[in-house]
Specification:
26% of the residues lie in helices and 18% in strands.
Length: 1011
Amino acid sequence: MILQARLFAGCGVRLLSQSWSLCFSQAAEGVMFRNVQKVLCVAEKNDAAKGIADILSNSRMRRREGISKFNKIYECQYRMFGQNVTVVMTSVSGHLLAHDFKMPFRKWHSCNPLVLFDAEIEKYCPENYMDIKRTLEREVKQCQALVIWTDCDREGENIGFEIINVCKAVKPSLQAFRARFSEITPNAIRVACENLTQPDQNVSDAVDVRQELDLRIGAAFTRFQTLRLQKIFPEVLAEQLISYGSCQFPTLGFVVERFKAIQAFIPETFYKIKVTHDHEDGLVDFSWKRNRLFNHTACLVLYQMCMEDPVATVVEIGSKPKSKWRPLPLDTVELEKLASRKLKINAKETMKIAEKLYTQGYISYPRTETNIFPKDLNLPNLVQLQTQDPRWGPFAQGILERGGPTPRQGTKSDQAHPPIHPTKYADNLQGNDQRLYEFIVRHFLACCSQDAKGQETTVEIDIAGEHFVAHGLMILERNYLDVYPYDKWSDKVIPVYTRGSRFQPTTVEMVDGETSPPQLLTEADLISLMEKHGIGTDATHAEHIETIKSRMYVGLTPDQRFLPGHLGMGLVEGYDSMGYEMSKPDLRAELEADLKLISEGKKDKSAVLRQQIQKYKHVFIEAVQKAKKLDEALSQYFGEVMPLAQEDDIYPAMPDPVRKCPQCASDMVLKTRKAGGFYLSCLGYPACKSAVWFPDSVLEVSKDESVCSVCLPHPVHRLKLKFKRGSLPATMPLEFVGCVGGCDETLREVLDLRYLRGPPRPLQPANSLSRASDTRNRPPGNASGSARLSADQAPPARAERGPPATRGGSGPGDAVVCNCGAEAVLLAVRKDGPNQGRQFYKCSSGSCGFFLWADQQADSGGRGLPGGFVAPPPPGSLGRGGGSRSWSDSSLAGGRGDGGGSATCRCDQPAVTRTVQKEGPNRGRQFHTCPRPREQQCGFFQWADENVAPGAAPTFPASTFMAGASARGPAGRSKRAASDSEASAPTSKRPRTCSVCHQAGHTKKTCPQNR
């Protein structure tokens, strides 16, 4: 029969078919799914996906490979959303995404550990999970709905949202639902399909908060401890990772606390009187009702009184029923403790096996805090499944014949999962898998049975006024003990005594003993303490215990008890001596309580994060200040402390942001290159490669406290710079304070601020540069006009062609001419960006590489000169050949030492003036050379600044202020510093760049980012 259902959003009326009923939850109500033909289902592990698909398909599923060879894809037809759909079932392998710091904070020596409390964190897919991610992205394209089948706990909910985010990035309109189940059985899976809900964002948020806090706190303290202690104790800890975790440390604290309690224990001698009676039916021990006395004299007096008349009189005989209670339903913590005590399987191995049994469908979900069986759980059916076993089958049958299971109920419920119980009979398991499965079955049957019953007899006697008691036990009904061999309860038979009867005791003696210290903790004891104090969750107890073992903080004695190591003892004692009892559970217990409130929607995620980060940050700062107490504590175990030359050398310096990166908004900080020199680096590296490389002529750079009032975003700090002598014009100070935000014309040219984008900013007043150590005023702004930005250095990729333009439109003589001697063509930038719509000139044939911004040509007096170049003198001042040429071949002729004569090459031709464009110490420097084509040149070369008359003040272009600009002597003529190609437009030859960071000025070997 075809289901016909109409869902009304207003009244919630649902008309259901008579053949079956479908209950949509709130997530599905009011929505029609007629267009849903294919549904993507994602489980947490491949075994779970296979088991669920097997149930949905009635074992008729089709299997195919995913991109990840470990995560298969299962397809079948199933009725969902009121119609037959194709189900595509696949899986992840736990968490698909990981939290980590953005680069470069992941590197240990990239920053001071304190920075990690505020450093940016990203959630990304690790490389080894990329195939799983690609599978989801590929499969979801053909699906109209997504159903999450991950484990129904906090971690599972968070993994579900990771899957949802990956899938919605490909298909934003995708509808996502949550299947809630506690066991992989046909009934549970079908009920989950019929009651799909929405994923719980609050529960997922709690996991995000925990992950972020664990990362920040753990990374900061781990780096602090490791970097410091490796240098303080190099012979012992040079290769040791000394980790910290806010759960790990309190767990260690419990072990240390018990060990120190044993060390501090002082035994006391006690005394007591012991009476025995050798009856014909057996030997009976009578215990003193006073138990024991710590005063020898008092006990001796009482003993002597008894010995004066050592005849016992029976004064009381009692008999009462005694019961040994059957166990409570099994939760996760109890499973870990009992497996450790009874089976000698540690908690980590126990949970690993339990997860495996769950995904294979043998037991219910093993991570639960519930010890109450829900009323709707079919217990008789679960007991019936076990009747076929030859070992416990008869006992299971007996439960059914005696009226069915009547389980003892506990008091805890997480409202998510029932207690751990068997869901299917298994007779093909081996090893620890079989042992743990058998334990779970026997525990379940014992819980559903009756308490063991017996009769306890007590006999009380009197000797000289002192009373002694003997106890006997007769077991009447063993009940659960018949199936639960892990509990012991034995008979203790005593003879029959008559009230008022008298007898002579066999012995009456005074014995002494000593009080004994508590024992070292077992794993079960440790888990009990963690649960009691709220350290971790039932799902993470085993992980924290394993961590302190793997870090060598604790070891195990032959009888499997925890003994703290020297490193563990020293760390706990060191932090406790600082005044912060970080080994105590209070800090973490408070966080776990907050996480629970976030899960319930009672607390805001951001508020908890902010509060906890500030709390631990304060503790961290105090710990760093009192770090010597940690050294002193560990020196008791590792010997003498290695003295440090400078305390600050242990950790990288705190980054001091100069400004925000204009590309990614991360902080930009000053750094030092390995080979010497400075650069301004973006902390977003390698995602963002913005940087300002200071030239070699800069000797010192430091951040000034003054902030630029012009540049955005605020704050942009000014820098104190000190240049080499001779690298700047004589009129310019070698030390000054300037802004690298882009508003400072001179620094834009001197430092070549390549990260800047957009049109040049207006010139800043001359007093914008303040001397750091010289009271002289800065020189006037350079004569080059507007500054050159890196965006201006390359011709646009796409442009609209226009007619050849005249210079100002005043006549044909004013046309812009390229290097070929032909008239340049006027174009406009079409590509999106800061220069879109801006006009420029270029060679009409493209052969000479000529390029000129139209607005720069207008600003430079109609000469076609780009910003940053010196305008040539008026035509009348030229010696010869002052014809109209482009800026890259300006035909500027300088005199030979007379300041006014023309420079003539060896061909007796007027020399042309060009500017060095190649990266290096002479970049921006002008020179005279032969005007002929390269193959016909005579080899003439002369620096323009060496051709100035004595006493004359040369005009410096802004580009001359670049690093390392040094004056070469006449010997420089023997080798040309620049070729014609170097003197062409800035785009004619790209400077060589580093293959790592793609910045000019260095190579891969010397790159500061290649560490």
